Amino acid sequence: MAGRTAGGHFARAQSFQMNRLLMPFASLYGLAARLRRHAYRRGWLESRRLSKPVISVGNLTLGGSGKTPLVAYIVRLLARNGYKPSVLTRGYGRDRGMDIIALDPEPNRVPDPRSVGDEPALLARALPEVPIVICSDRYRAGRLAEERYGVDVHILDDGFQHLSLARDIDLVAVDLTRDLLHESLLPAGRMREPASALAKADLIVLTRSEISDAASLEKHVRRINSDAPIFRCETSLLNLAELGGKREIDPAEYQGRPVCAFCAIGNPAAFFTNLRQWGFHLVAEIAFRDHHVYRASDLHRVGKTAREKGAAALITTAKDVMNLSPHLPFALPVLACVIQAKILDAERFEKVLLAGLSSNQLPSRVVLQT
Predict the structure, then answer these.
(1) What CATH number does the domain containing 183 carry?
(2) Rounded to the nearest 5°, which phi and psi values hold at 143?
(3) Which residues contact 56 (CB under 8 A, 6 or more apart)?
(4) What are the pLDDT digits (tens) for 286-331?
(5) Do residues 228 and 247 share a domain?
């Protein structure tokens, strides 16, 4: 495959051996995760509840499940139905600074990804009308959102394991390109919890159904959780954005042309596969660890590879742009993929989600009879 290094097989063999050595620790991690959930369920550890309902959007793995586009999809759905949502997020990877950061709703806001985290910065640009509060204590973040912005529902980003905040709907994104049933727990693999934790989900969304067949995994998920509605979700390309926000570009301008793809996300293989499905000719693929902040040496490597492979452009994700300077020493254009989640049974998904909120009797939805 284009852009693969000669030492790839050796690196994978080393990784496999390291995983085997870490399996005893993974077993201990899994036991701790189950005991933690049990402690919250029995009330030995406290879950605090906000005044307004909470929809948690989470997953079982370390990143790369398509969760962030799903958060944006749900926020837009709620706003379209008259709700006033907020997004509560930790802001993974941000610099140590202010303990809590509130991003006021305003057009054209461009928060510094180093201060708020790359994913909150991306959501802030995609959802300018929605307040976003960044804090490790999501209860505190939610209280601020209710008091300052008058929101009537919260979206808890990456919240499935954040059990200290009570939620009304627990939505779990399951990436179809991951081997959920055979993946190892941390630190040997990427699983935060065993697959059995899906039994606690209220809604399950199988993401990246455009890449992998959902039928087989859906049967296994149904055996774990026979009650939760299951939906399938695709990742669709809207357009390309030139680095620095100079202009939006029709993907057709570069489809079929040689491009050098690079990214620092949780599932780079899925991104590269999507690019091919969207009609791009990848002559090189360069992947960095998730949330990587690019150094000059990284950019030199990317630019050198693109020139050597005869690429017409560099292409990356909108999340990666958060960690790039708008002024890069590249002669080639740098293009970001602007994507959106697409629920295949969107009407049913909307009905199920709204019904879940209605069953909790939101005060803002109660009409007093006179």
Answers:
(1) 3.40.50.300
(2) -60, -45
(3) 156, 159, 160, 162, 165, 167, 169, 170, 171
(4) 999 988 888 889 999 999 999 999 999 999 999 999 888 777 778 8
(5) no
